[in-house]
Amino acid sequence: MSIVVPRAKSASVNPLKQSAPLGAAMAYLGVEGAVPLFHGSQGCTAFALVAMVRHFKETIPIQTTAMNEVSTILGGADHLEEALLNLKTRMKPKLIGIASTALTETRGEDMAGEVGEILRRRAADLDGTTVVFASTPDFTGALEEGWAAATSAVIAALVPEGDAAGRDPTAVNILAGQHLTPGDVEALRDLAESFGLVPTILPDISLSLDGTVPDAWVPTSYGGTSRAAIAGMGRAAVTLAIGEHMAAPGRLLERRTGVPCRVLPAVTGLEDCDRLVVALAELSGRPVPERLKRERSRLVDAMLDGHLIVGGRAAVVAAEPDLLYAVTRLIAELGGRIVGAVTTAVGSRALERIPAADVLIGDLGDLERLAAEHGADLIATHSHGRRAAERLHRPHLRIGFPIFDRLGAQHRVSVGYAGTRDLIFEIANLLQSGDHAPTPADLDPFRDRAADAPTPRSH
Predict the structure, then answer these.
(1) What are the structural domain ranges in the chain?
(2) What's the half-sphere exposure (Cβ side, CA atoms, 13 Å) at 138?
(3) Which of 13, 67, 9 is closest to 42 using CA atoms?
(4) 0.85 exceeded by pTM
(5) Which superfamily does CATH assign the domain made up of 171-289 to?
(6) What is the pLDDT of residues 176-199, one digit of tens each?
(7) What is the pLDDT of residues 337-383, one digit of tens each?
(8) Domain 20-140 has CATH 3.40.50.300
C-alpha cells in the first residue's frame, strides 16, 4: 500500500494538473446537443478552450457568462440568466451544462439556488433545454473531480427516481472515466456488444470528440449520449463504473434507480481486463467469444516479449489518479520499477494501490526531480512533460490530457486486451529507442590497447 505525500510547496512553477471546470466541460460534451457554460470570467473559459482545441484538434463549443469587475462584486446571477437565454436562442442546445469557477465559488454565491430560481422564472423561455449545474471550483480537485461532478449532475437532472417498470437483462450502463479516450470508449462499446449486450455509455465522448466531419455546421456537441438514453439508464441490469472517480456517479444512479453499481478500477492490464470480460460474460450468460480469447493470448505473448525490455527499468509517472494507477500497474506487471509517482489531488482510492512506495501530490517539477534523483529510464506524463524529458535525455511516454504535440491522441486505445498489448509495445519501443547495439570496443575494452599504447622511447 503506497503512502500519499501531500503537497509541500506553496506554488507550482511547472503545473501538472488541469482544472476541475475543464473536466466538467469535457464530460458535458459527452451528451448529445450539449453546450458547456463556464460561470466565471472570459479568461477562465479561454484557457480551457485552448487546452481542448490543442488536444482534440476540433472546434469546441465552450461558452462563458463573462463575469467582469462589477458583476464579481455585485453578483453574477444576471450574467448567468442572460447567458442561458442567449444560448437557448442562438444555439438551441438540448443541454446546457454549467460549471462554476474559482471566481464565483470564492465569492460565495448560491449558484445552485440561483440556477433553480432562473429555471422557475424562465421555464417557458428555456423549454426543451435541460440545464444542469455542477460545483467545480478551480482550487479543489482536477480533471477527474470535475468530470465526476458533471456526470452526477446529468444523472440527477435526467434519470427519474424509482425502480424502472421493466428491467432489460441485456442492458448495461457504462460510466466512462475521464482517463479514457474516445477510442477507449468505442473499444468498451464494441467489447460489450460482442457479448450481445446493449450498452449505454455516459459520458460518451466517442461520438462527440472522435474527430469526424459533420455534413453541416453544428454549434453544440454533435454526438454523445442522448437524453432519452440517459433517462432509460434505470432499466439496465447493472452499472459498470470505470475508474474510482466514477464510483460517486455510480452510487447516485444506484440510489435513484436501484441498478447495482460495480466499480472497475481499471480496464488496462491482463488482470483488470480479465475482470471486465468475466463480468460481461456473467451478465450476458454467454461464453467468451473466440476473438477475445485470441486477443488475450496475444496480450500474454506481448507481456512475455515486453518484460525482457521493461523488466528492471525505472519509470516516473505523473497523471490523474486513475490513469496513474492503470499505467503504473501495467509497468509493474512487466517487471518495471516505479521510482516516482506524482498526481493531482488527494482523495482517490486508486492512490492506495499505486505500486510505488510514495505517491506525491505535486507538479512536473517534482516529476523531473524524482527522475533525476533515481536515474529513471522512462518519463510518462502529458505533453507538458516533454521539456523535462529533453533536459534529462529520457524517452517520454505521452499519456493523459493534454497531448498537443502528437496527432491521434483521441483515437489511441489502451484498454482491453488489444489496447493493453499496443501500450506495452509503445512502452517497450520507447525504451528500445535509446538502446544501442554494442560495438566490438564496448564488448572488449582492451581490444585496441596495443594501438593506444605509447610508443617506447629509444635510448
Answers:
(1) 20-140, 171-289, 293-433
(2) 17
(3) 67
(4) yes
(5) Nitrogenase molybdenum iron protein domain (3.40.50.1980)
(6) 999 999 999 999 999 999 999 999
(7) 999 999 998 889 999 999 999 999 999 999 999 999 999 999 999 99
(8) no
